Amino acid sequence: MDNAGLTIEFPEMEILTHEPLMKYTYTKTGGPADYLVFPKTQHEVQQIVTYCTQHTIPWLVLGNASNLIVRDGGIRGVVLMLTKMTNMTIDHTTIQVEAGARLIDVSKAAGEHQLTGLEFACGIPGSIGGAVYMNAGAYGGEIKDVFVSCDYLDETGTIRTLTAADMAFSYRHSAVQEKKGIVLSVTFELQQGVVQEIQEKMQELTRLREDKQPLEYPSCGSVFKRPEGHFTGKLIQDAGLQGMCIGGAQISTKHAGFIVNIDHATATDYVELIVHIQHVIFEKFAVSLETEVRIIGEQ
Q1: Claim: this prediction has a pTM higher than 0.70
Q2: Distance (Å, rounded) from C-alpha 245 to C-alpha 226?
Q3: Facing residues of 88 across strands?
Q4: Rounded Cα–Cα distance for residues 61 and 65 (Å)
Q5: Is the distance from CB of 122 to CB of 210 less than 8 angstroms?
Q6: Positions marked catalytic
Q7: Pairing of strands 258-261, 219-222
Q8: pLDDT tens, residue by residue, 112-149
Q9: In the chain, where do the E strands start and end?
Q10: Which residues, other chains included, contact 101 with Cβ-Cβ below 8 Å and sequence gap of 6+?
């Protein structure tokens, strides 16, 4: 791929070449992207995707790179990060927000406007687009509970509106996971609440998170989906795996459902530890652990 073609075609767009993605991932691991692009508008996203399609260039979106592992070989083609697309409008009980905004920030803004329904998200570090993609949730709440619709760029380069019915939300799943497209902006519907009650609930959830999760180390968040009838952390503890390391990656001693980067871990360390956990848990308990974290890129 000719970078000059990209920069000539999009002179106002920030385009980085051979950019190490470990600078952006929450695990602080991951190889380089051939080209890392930071579009500022929906139209710029549409332009880049159309250009890539016309020139047969592979592309993907990283979101906020929080619940994600990029392998050490990096990613070929164009990687889009929407972190410059954060515009948000609040009208009565409706929030419209671009996909690059952080879910934490939107939850906070909702509370400041006396809106309840997003308190559960006050500690989720991902982007709005990634949260919709994964149907992110915590402490009994999920994105599907407040989702109304989203603007979605489909594989043909067309922007269209998807409703909640179109999204087929389920546990850590949405219909866009099976599609080649991008969530560009989202509309949420919340309820009027009392500021003090909203703040108290968010403070309580923040305290629970700080007490239970290893926030002092880089991590990809919750590694595995909860298997039906079990708690992942307890399974890993019962298997005697808590505290185990491969390279610089460790099964957290604070919460066994997390893998933390304690000493210059590589993505390979993470993936090998994940595979080992899955193998041991299946051997000991006949339970298959499915990853919640996305693992992408080349070895």
Answers
A1: yes
A2: 22
A3: 97
A4: 9
A5: no
A6: 172, 222, 292
A7: antiparallel
A8: 999 999 999 999 989 999 999 999 999 999 999 999 99
A9: 14-20, 32-38, 59-61, 68-70, 75-80, 88-91, 94-98, 115-116, 137-138, 141-142, 147-153, 159-163, 182-189, 191-192, 219-222, 245-246, 249-251, 258-261, 294-296
A10: 85, 86, 87, 88, 127, 128
